[in-house]
Design brief:
By secondary structure, this protein is α+β, with helices and mostly antiparallel strands. The chain is about 15% helix and about 45% strand. A hairpin with a 5-residue loop joins strand 1 and strand 2.
């Protein structure tokens, strides 16, 4: 989801997780280099979807979690 109000990155793209029929939540943001390309495509009207490939982190020295995702354009 585009986050045009993000004070840190004008091209910010939030990654949301949703459960079918339930609420969705922002779980993070695309890296700036990726967001700078994806944001332009989204602003042109392309729909961007993703699939979660794996969850990473959460172990000693890496207490934060991350997600490896596959980005799809429609």
């Amino acid at each position: 989801m585009r986050d045009r109000s993000n004070a840190f990155d004008i091209n910010a793209v939030a990654v949301t997780a949703a459960v079918k029929g339930k609420v969705s939540a922002v779980i993070g943001y695309l890296p700036k280099a990726v967001a700078s390309v994806v944001a332009v495509l989204m602003d042109k009207g392309l729909q961007i979807m993703s699939d979660t490939l794996s969850i990473v982190g959460g172990y000693s020295g890496h207490e934060n979690y991350g997600a490896r995702i596959l980005i799809k354009m429609q």
